[in-house]
Amino acid sequence: MAVWLIPVIIAFVIAAGVYRKVNIYETLTDGAKEGLHTWIAIVPHLVIMMAAVAVFRASGAAAWLASLFAPVTSLFGIPSEVVPLAIIRPISGSATLAMLDQIMREFGADSYIAKLAAVMQGSTDTTLYVLAIYFGAAGIKKTGDALKIGLLADAAAFISAVFAVTWLL
Amino acid sequence: MVSAAFAFLLLSGFVFAAVNGTMADVNTALFQSMELSIQLALSLAGVILFWTGVMKTAEAAGLVRSLAAIVQPILRRLFPDIPHSHPVFGLIASNMAANFFGLGNAATPIGLRAMRELRQLNGDKDSASRSMITFLALNTAGVTLIPTTVIAIGLKHGATNPADIILPAFLATVLSACFAIVIDRHYARKRSG
């Protein structure tokens, strides 16, 4: 089922473009060019954050932090190895991409831990960064309950991820 | 905040290595990371370029606009403080539709315009209004159709079927968005006493 999804979406977009008489080759390549700028903007963040994440992991600090949470996470059947990812996710998407990369290297891409980490990464956003940009642009100084709600929603996504991976994979 | 996260990861790692005697591993990992990060970046390059191209085409074919038109009536229920015919609904809907298609570059400027409009509607220019908090709750819950970078990382590490995370990720993101709406309502009711 999942293997059909991406081809179907791409086919649907291209068919809609042809039907609406869009110059699809131009929009595809223009979009790819925009993607290139996005990619260039990401690379420095990946290199810098990957170093910090590597030190954090190789030193044993990541495992120690995970072990602190293990009594709580084991109650819910969550592997504690994903705890550092859950904590950093709202702050830095590049750091958690690096963590996801390391988790897949260590446990294998088909492991439960890797799938869970992937779903956690894919179902949430960099909440603190988004709030900073949006409130900053609007000149809002008192942000009310926004942060609390955003972080609670992230926590809900992480818990949902556990159920979704258990049920659907 | 990102600086604090970076400093925490790096410094706690060094302190931990000093205490635990894992400094040699840390040295190796640090230098390996610089190569691994470029490998990771390269493995993401193709998917980011290609997918942005596809989604730009979706935008040009009017699909983002169609989705925005579908969500707009639902939005009126979520934002009771905004007058029904106000143009900011169009901006909020477009921002959500662009985010759904993974068009972050297109979504952000629209979203920032929506925030400025919401500020115009707000009596207090310094504090977040109920509508702003609702908008950002929806935005950060982040309903995305396909988490392409995550799929690319799975592929790089030899996942048998890297696309199989799409449905669970979609389910988790929809559940968290629903939860965000519920707690947003709860806090809004608490504020109004």
UniProtKB/TrEMBL annotation, chain A:
Full protein name: Spore maturation protein
PANTHER family in UniProt: INNER MEMBRANE PROTEIN YJIG (PTHR35793:SF2)
Cellular component terms per the entry's GO annotation: plasma membrane
Keyword DNA-binding: no
Tree of life domain: Bacteria
Record-annotated Nucleoside transporter/FeoB GTPase Gate domain positions: 41-141
Coiled coil: none
Chain segments annotated as transmembrane: 36-56, 68-92, 112-137, 149-168
Keywords: Membrane, Transmembrane, Transmembrane helix
UniProt cross-references to InterPro entries, sorted A to Z: Gate_dom (IPR011642), SpmB (IPR052549)
Automatic annotation (TrEMBL), chain B:
InterPro entries: Gate_dom
Signal peptide positions on this chain: 1-17
Domain called Nucleoside transporter/FeoB GTPase Gate: residue spans: 42-155
Membrane-spanning intervals of the chain: 36-55, 91-112, 133-153, 165-183
Alphabetic keyword roster: Membrane, Signal, Transmembrane, Transmembrane helix
Protein name per Swiss-Prot or TrEMBL: Spore maturation protein
Organism whose genome encodes this protein: Domibacillus mangrovi
Lineage: Bacteria, Bacillati, Bacillota, Bacilli, Bacillales
